[in-house]
Design goal:
Elements: H1 4-7, E1 16-22, H2 25-38, E2 42-45, E3 51-53, E4 58-65, E5 70-75, E6 80-85, H3 90-99, E7 102-103, E8 124-125, E9 128-129, E10 134-141, E11 146-151, E12 170-181, H4 196-202, H5 212-225, E13 239-242, E14 248-250, H6 251-254, E15 263-265, E16 290-293, H7 295-301, E17 315-317, E18 324-327, H8 333-351, E19 360-362
Length: 366
């Protein structure tokens, strides 16, 4: 019997009443429409890298999105449009882009899962974010039972969020990316490096560019050091990556945290203004600023260290990265959920911050 434990990176989860393998967009739409008409519950499954599914059998249909393919749609002065099928491996697509001298996704190397799942939570890493490169996508809309095209503006992208994360249910069929044509071979340079850890690892200043291949290699090395690349020889590999989203709070609240708590302003600061002679000085902005906190820092400072596990549990905090909950080989979905609840309660009681889960939970609640 097929189970979610076989098809997800966390390696937990029970079976399902019905499975459908859909290898083309037409197959996906046909299966989804049929399930909708039947009234059956359903979920779409790509690489299974962002799912925590209950141990009990899912009483519905699982549509496996297995479509693959990459095609250059058009070459422009400012960007190249690239059409990618939803079931295509995300990292294989990034590798293809780097090899072909197309910039914009190189810092998102090594993220597991499929292309179609990427816009749901607006994936991002090391200073790049999916929202920056999505031109449009084709989407089967459950409410309409029809295929529609959604532009970047339609997606309501924000930090680890899009309109597809609950507000608009359906299945991504393919995505068109707008990537930068930056050359081929060693001279193909990345977009400016805008993440301090990556810039430091590359030995360059923030805002510098580096060869696409060098950026990809360094990102992969950083991810491996944190157990964030699927590797059967790594005891920390079976996870959903970061289990909790970095919380965003008000600037006022952030000031209540210890002085050494990492804080990252969200959004751009207002540009400087130069006043003409005699022009009045404008009032200071009263717009409150949002601050992103480090969930990993909050977890460790609340007393939950790397490698921690509840007594008798098959789940544990990664030994490399406190933001990842891992399956140590015998974990159940309930083991993972109980550890997540414990982490959540420790952070909330210590700092008054409620951490929210990054993966999609099926048959479970946190």
């Amino acid at each position: 019997m097929t189970t979610f434990a076989e098809l997800t990176t966390l390696r937990v989860g029970g079976g399902a009443r019905h499975w459908i393998d859909a290898r083309t967009s037409d197959d996906i739409v046909s299966a989804a429409s049929a399930v909708r008409r039947s009234g059956d519950d359903w979920i779409a499954l790509g690489g299974g890298s962002n799912l925590l599914v209950a141990d009990d059998e899912f009483d519905g249909t699982v549509i496996r999105v297995l479509s693959e393919g990459i095609q250059i749609e058009s070459e422009g002065v400012d960007h190249t449009l690239v059409h990618v099928q939803a079931g295509h491996s995300w990292d294989d697509f990034v590798s293809w882009a780097v090899i072909n001298g197309l910039g914009g996704v190189e810092a998102m190397s090594g993220i597991p899962g499929t292309v179609g799942a990427a816009p749901v939570q607006n994936i991002g890493a090391y200073g790049q974010e999916l929202a920056e490169v999505v031109h449009s996508l084709t989407f089967w809309d459950e409410q309409r039972d029809d295929v529609v095209t959604l532009t970047n503006a339609d997606m309501d992208f924000s930090f680890r969020h899009s309109i597809l994360k609950g507000a608009r249910r359906g299945i991504v069929l393919d995505i068109t990316f707008a990537l930068s044509r930056v050359g081929t071979g060693p001279e193909a340079l990345s977009r400016p490096i805008m993440f301090e850890q990556l810039a430091s690892a590359l030995g360059v200043a923030m805002g510098a560019s580096q060869p696409l291949g060098a950026v990809r290699d360094r990102v992969m090395a950083l991810r491996r050091s944190k157990g964030m690349v699927l590797d059967a020889n790594d005891a920390d590999t079976f996870s959903v990556g970061s289990f909790f989203v970095n919380p965003i709070v008000s600037e006022r609240f952030s000031r209540t945290l210890p002085a050494d708590a990492p804080r990252y302003p969200v959004g751009e600061e207002e540009p400087p203004r130069y006043l003409a002679p005699g022009e009045e000085v404008p009032p200071l902005s009263t717009q409150p600023r949002a601050i992103k906190l480090s969930a990993a820092w909050l977890i460790e400072q609340s007393g939950v260290r790397k490698g921690f596990a509840l007594p008798g549990s098959g789940a544990g905090i990664s030994t490399k990265h406190s933001l990842a909950i891992t399956n140590r080989g015998t974990a159940s979905a309930d083991d993972v959920l109980q550890l997540a609840k414990y982490v959540q309660s420790m952070v909330q009681s210590t700092f008054g911050v409620l951490l929210l889960p990054e993966p999609t939970l099926v048959g479970l609640s946190l």
